[in-house]
């Protein structure tokens, strides 16, 4: 007690310490191991040794360019779809939800009460060849008689969109909910129609939510492998599937580690470009 | 669509006054005709009829919940009346949304767009109406000069002080040269000193631009400082409408007398066309006009500064000083009389005068012309 009083300046560091210790042991140290591992060579039988094997990186990019590209394509489409679905949803709850707001928010979060894996397996059933969706689509002629949804990119993107929707909807809701309704009145007072007021005031002010939601959706979606594995076929495999199989099935640690780093670097680059395009000013409000 | 309400359309004089109207030349800028607004089962505005002259500074004054803000919001187009019509000039506008009305608002706590610069905040209305490029910049610069914010174009609202934000809000509305400017408690967020300064400035700006201002406030001093005419509102209705002097000197109801300044109200009974017997006290003389034909129980009112401590005037009342407080320009006395307690302000015009004479017997007196009469205030607890 007396110690803290005499050394007030220490308080912030003491508050920071638990998080810092945690991050060091469970993030920084494993990351270091991973770097180390990604530069090893050898194989499972003879063991791996550290040899500055930069070739792992070029091999990862050359051998799995298609999976990398697909990861970003699927994650990108899923993010855009999630944004398009979530915005009206969050807007409606924030401005029209009234006293039922919290209930509607609970509905958005409700899927989290069921395991990710089970939810995705449920989608497998919904989109199955004998399932109701495929039957209806065949009946109305959108799918041919032999057409299917499972094992197509449509199914994988749909699964990703569904699974990450709450990560988009919640930040959007928060940014819309805290908006001052009088700003919209002020815009209408200054000759802006409802639509204009939305474009000039509501939308720009909700951008921090859009940005947060986009990042929270895109980043995990780009590294996902469950959706491609359960709803897709090898033709839809994403880089997550490759890393997963290298690590756990082929026990090729250096290849898996280097791929993880390429993925991480690419995502960081994409996020940096995105932040620059939107403007950091808008990110911080 | 509606946003291309061009500048020319806005400035167009109202030439098509229907011949049927009696005073076509003196068409009021704003007219409310039996307007009622009901929220669920609460009547916020109750059968309000009101005319506001072009170019005047009009205040709606009342306690919170009296319907003044709702009335303002109906004129602005943010609420639609449950019954009745609202006219801007000759045009009936009740169904029209806010963005199609030639009216702008200075919102309580300003509602400036936080993501836009001062320039873009002020230019917002101009751009919506299709004003372009250099014209926008010139008009914004001119109006910022009027409100005293030259060179602030590139700041963001959060980089400004409260007073500066207030000026931006004013400029943002005025730059559109609306028919009517609505001000919703515009000075409420400022500290006392700045508020006093802005009161005078607002009045000056109104003179300069010549636009009709409708100002909503619960601060009687603010309303009296700025407005040409004031509507004192209570319970969704207008209690009294008049110039600040009329309202202060000749309040017609106990509510108005109590809301504007301090007043002494004594119960009494009318004995003649110009005489009232105070309950438990003497007869006093009142102006015939103030009595306005009332009979039976009435309330007789005298402002504290109109009362003399020595009996020089015609209306007299004996009493005893029970409290006195020196407040600089005046000394405030509380005098116990058979008719009740009265507050008296005596100006300290002589050197050395001050609080004194506690428990002294005095004869209060006042000029009959300074007396006003209100309906019996038995049910009022002012």
Task: Describe what this molecule looks like in 3D.
The complex is a heterodimer of chains A (285) and B (382). Chain A is globular, with a radius of gyration of 23 Å. Chain A has helices at residues 2-6, 11-38, 55-63, 65-96, 101-109, 116-126, 132-139, 153-177, 181-189, 194-222, 226-231, 239-248, 253-278, 280-283, and strands at residues 40-43, 47-50. Chain A has one domain: MetI-like fold (Orthogonal Bundle). Chain A contains 14 helices and two strands; from the N terminus they run ααββαααααααααααα. Chain B folds into two domains: 22-246, Rossmann fold (3-Layer(aba) Sandwich); 261-375, Beta Barrel (OB fold (Dihydrolipoamide Acetyltransferase, E2P)), CATH 2.40.50. Chain B has ten helices and 19 strands. In chain B, strand 15 (315-326) and strand 16 (330-337) form a beta hairpin. In chain B, helix 3 runs parallel beside helix 5 (162-174). The model of chain B is unreliable at 1-25 (pLDDT under 50). At the A-B interface, helix 9 and helix 10 of A face strand 6 and helix 3 of B.
Kindly summarize this structure in a few lines.
With 285 residues, chain A is mostly helical.
Taking pLDDT < 50 over at least 5 consecutive residues as the criterion, the unreliable ranges of chain A are: none
The first-level CATH class of chain A is given as Mainly Alpha
What would you call the shape of chain A?
A: globular
Estimate percent helicity of chain B: 10-25%
Mean pLDDT of chain B: 87
Superfamily (CATH H level) name of chain A: MetI-like
Percent strand of chain B equals 25-35%
End-to-end separation of chain A: 38 Å
Q: Kindly state the number of beta strands of chain A.
A: 2
Structural class of chain B: alpha+beta
Lateral strand order in the biggest sheet of chain B = 6-7-8-3-9-10
- Rg measurement of chain A, Å: 23 Å
| Terminus-to-terminus distance of chain B | 52 Å
Multimeric state: heterodimer
Q: Which sheet architecture does the biggest sheet of chain B show? A: 6 strands, mixed
Kindly state the mean pLDDT of chain A as a whole number? 91
Biggest interface, residues from each chain? A-B, 20 and 28 residues
Helices and strands of chain A, in N-to-C order? HHEEHHHHHHHHHHHH
């Amino acid at each position: 007690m007396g110690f803290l009083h005499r050394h007030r300046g220490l308080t912030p560091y003491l508050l920071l310490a638990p998080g810092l210790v945690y991050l060091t042991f469970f993030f920084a140290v494993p990351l270091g191991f991973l770097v180390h591992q990604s530069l090893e060579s050898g194989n499972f039988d003879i063991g791996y040794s550290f040899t500055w094997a930069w070739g792992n990186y070029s091999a990862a990019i050359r051998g799995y360019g298609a999976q990398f590209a697909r990861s970003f394509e699927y994650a990108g489409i899923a993010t855009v779809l999630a944004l398009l679905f979530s915005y009206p949803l969050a807007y409606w709850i924030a401005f029209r939800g009234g006293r039922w707001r919290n209930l509607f928010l609970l509905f958005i979060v409700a899927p989290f009460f069921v395991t990710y894996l089970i939810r995705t397996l449920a989608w497998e059933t919904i989109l199955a060849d004998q399932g109701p969706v495929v039957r209806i689509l065949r009946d109305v002629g959108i799918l041919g008689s032999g057409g299917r949804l499972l094992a197509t990119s449509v199914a994988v993107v749909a699964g990703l969109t569904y699974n990450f929707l709450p990560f988009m909807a919640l930040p959007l809701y928060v940014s819309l909910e805290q908006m001052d309704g009088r700003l919209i009145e002020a815009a209408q007072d200054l000759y802006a129609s409802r639509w204009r007021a939305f474009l000039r005031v509501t939308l720009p002010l909700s951008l921090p939510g859009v940005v947060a939601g986009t990042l929270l959706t895109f980043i995990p979606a780009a590294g996902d492998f469950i959706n491609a594995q359960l709803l897709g076929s090898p033709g839809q495999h994403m880089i997550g599937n490759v890393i997963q199989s290298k690590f756990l099935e082929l026990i090729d640690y250096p290849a898996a580690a280097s791929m993880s780093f390429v993925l991480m670097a690419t995502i960081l680059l994409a996020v940096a470009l995105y932040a620059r395009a939107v403007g950091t000013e808008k990110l911080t409000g | 669509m509606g946003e291309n309400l061009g500048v020319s359309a806005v400035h167009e004089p109202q030439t098509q006054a229907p011949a049927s109207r009696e005073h076509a030349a003196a068409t009021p800028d704003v007219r409310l005709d039996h307007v009622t607004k009901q929220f669920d089962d609460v009547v916020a505005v109750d059968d309000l009829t009101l005319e506001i002259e072009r170019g005047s500074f009009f205040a709606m004054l009342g306690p919170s919940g009296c319907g003044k803000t709702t009335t303002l919001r109906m004129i602005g187009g943010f609420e639609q009346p449950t019954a009745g019509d609202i006219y801007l000039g000759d045009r009936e506008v009740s169904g029209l949304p806010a963005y199609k009305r030639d009216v702008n608002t200075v919102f309580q706590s300003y509602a400036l767009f936080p993501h836009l610069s001062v320039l873009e905040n002020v230019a917002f209305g101009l751009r919506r109406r299709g004003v372009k490029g250099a014209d926008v910049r010139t008009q914004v610069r001119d109006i910022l000069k009027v409100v005293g914010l030259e060179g602030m174009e590139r700041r963001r609202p959060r980089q400004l002080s409260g007073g500066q934000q207030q000026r931006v809000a004013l400029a943002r509305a005025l730059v559109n040269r609306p028919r009517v400017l609505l001000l919703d408690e515009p000075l409420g967020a400022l500290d006392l000193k700045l508020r006093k300064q802005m009161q005078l400035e607002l009045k000056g700006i109104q003179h300069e631009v010549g636009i009709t201002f409708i100002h909503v406030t619960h601060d009687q001093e603010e309303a009296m400082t700025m407005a040409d005419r004031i509507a004192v509102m209570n319970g969704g209705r207008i209690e009294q409408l008049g110039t600040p002097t009329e309202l202060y000197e000749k309040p017609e109801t106990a509510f108005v007398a109590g809301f504007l300044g301090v007043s002494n109200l004594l119960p009494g009974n009318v004995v003649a066309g110009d005489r009232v017997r105070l309950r438990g006290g003497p007869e006093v003389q009142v102006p015939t006009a103030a009595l306005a034909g009332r009979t039976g129980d009435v309330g007789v009112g005298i402002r504290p500064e109109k009362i003399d401590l020595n009996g020089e005037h015609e209306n007299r009342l004996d009493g005893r000083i029970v409290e006195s407080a020196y407040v600089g320009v005046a000394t405030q006395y509380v005098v116990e009389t058979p008719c009740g307690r009265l507050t008296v302000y005596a100006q300290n015009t002589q050197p050395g005068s001050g609080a004194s004479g506690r428990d002294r017997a005095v004869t209060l007196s006042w000029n009959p012309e300074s007396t006003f009469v209100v309906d019996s205030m038995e049910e009022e607890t002012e």
